[in-house]
Amino acid sequence: MKKVRGMRVIEYLLTVLVIVTLNFALPRAMPGDPFLVLSDVEEEAAVLTEEQRQYYFELYGLDRPMHKQYLSYLGDLLRGDLGHSIYYNESVTTIILRRLPWTLFLVISTVILRTIIGSLLGSISAWCRGNFFDQFLFFNLITISEIPAFITGLLILFVFSAMLGLFPLAGAMSHFTTYSNWWDKLLDILHHAFLPIVTLTLARLGGIYLLARNSVVSVIQKDYLLTAQAKGLSKGRILLWHILRNAMLPIVTRTFLSLGSLVGGAILVENVFNYPGLGLLMQEAVNVHDYTLIQGIFLVVALFVLIANLMADLIYKHFDPRIESNEEATA
Amino acid sequence: MELHLKIKSAINAFKKFSLSGKLGLILILLILLMAIFAPWLSPHPHQRSSGSALIPPDSEHILGTDDLGIDLWAQITNGARISLLVGFGTALLAAVGGGIMGIVAAYKGGLIDKILMRLIDIMMVMPDLPVMILLAAFFGPSLFNIILVLAIFSWIRPARIVRSQVLMLKEQSYIKSAESYGAKSWYLIRKHFLPEVSPLLAVSIIRLSSRAIVAEAGLSFLGLGDPTSRSWGLIIHHALNFQGIYYTSFWRWWLLYPWLALTILTVSLAFIGRDLERIVDPRLGN
Predict the structure, then answer these.
(1) ipTM for the assembly
(2) Out of A56, A232, A273, B49, which could bridge B69 as a Cys pair, Cβ 3.0 to 4.6 Å?
(3) Calpha distance A195→A200 (Å, rounded)
(4) What is the pTM of this model?
């Protein structure tokens, strides 16, 4: 057991190394000169003299041998230094830290909501398996979950913001307002975050729903449920205490495992709602060719996803030692 | 006779699909036709302006025009080409590449197999969208690069399927006897392994192309599509980047129609994919 777990951790460390190396190698593998790209932002290639070029090369340490550059890059990363954004003229770490809370807010709210709603709907569906309500839920939730979140998001934005005007079209808070108290501020934040969270939750509901439905269906046929019913326990109590508790493990694992695709969805959905998190920042960085910033965001997001996956792995193995190391992971 | 049988088996295959799957197949067929006949479907060019900017749908421009005066219907018919090209291109590349890797790894075994398995493990936990954004941003968003980037994240499934299939086949006695008669690797691969794995690969190609189409839509929605050949995602991206589009009525055609096209495409693909999985692997059924 211990050995298997160690192997998994090593595998993840290897992946982190691949990602970091990719981040280091990509700009250096790009055709052309970094300073050509730098000066090309204004659409006119500024010509550097040989002396200036030399100066910049030394300034950015590009004259040093590759392995030294790599080591100093790793050192910078360990100190939390992600470089300097050319466009915003600010440290990349500062910019990311300013935007990160919004993305985390979206992702965490979605995780909580979808887990609760998904398991509830799944149990209800399993409880009245085969009837119209079950089939209705099943078909719709699975179909929605196969449509990318940003497409559903656009529809929600069309209807509720653009046509009905019920929700704001962009941003995370209203501009130029002073809040009389924290309650107003909270309401404003929730008002802005509501549609993005609903979109992400809807798009991600299918997986949890299906999982809950399947586990409840399999538990329902067990003998101890008959006992519980014979004892005269209420339906709600049986559902909560006897069924959902047993379905919890796969749901928790699934939640961690799906954080990766959830973050991917959040990147796109933020762009639909103009929500100022990391996803919108990434698109802005792509638009202005701010490569250091793109790399920084990439690294933060990738590490976040990897940590979530590792946690899912470890939790699963911890609670269910029957799982073999090479079991087929379902995407 | 041959053709007659083929049509019959195609009809039989169609019958196996559920109602939603049939709907999906018909819609995909329509989109396919739209892609093939794109230049003849629209009287206006899809790359040049053909009227004033931002006119609402009328008899001249049935879906209106965008901010450069380019006809939207022309862009949408042409966008169907891009989506399908990216989808099938990626799937083909991934299936061929992954298939070859799977066969070689399983057949040769040893170190090659170990390296491939480690690589697959690493790719499985790699967050795909962020890496794709990074690669597309650095290598420049040409159509070929997009296909390449998508294929990098798609070859894992075919490689695994093929590898496990070949591992199983390798132990069969007819392969063993072919080997003992002096069959070379290439002969075995061509005569025995490929025919056995190709039906599996064909199904995974359909699944892979639908994933690639969705991924391309996401990338180009972020502005990472090939600017010279506008896909549906890229039209949406440009419309969304139009300052204050929701305060005007422009979004009612400029955003709505490409969105509708993309929605129809992804929903049909989802329907078909679900049915395919059920037909190929009846254990999953519900």
Answers:
(1) 0.83
(2) B49
(3) 9
(4) 0.83
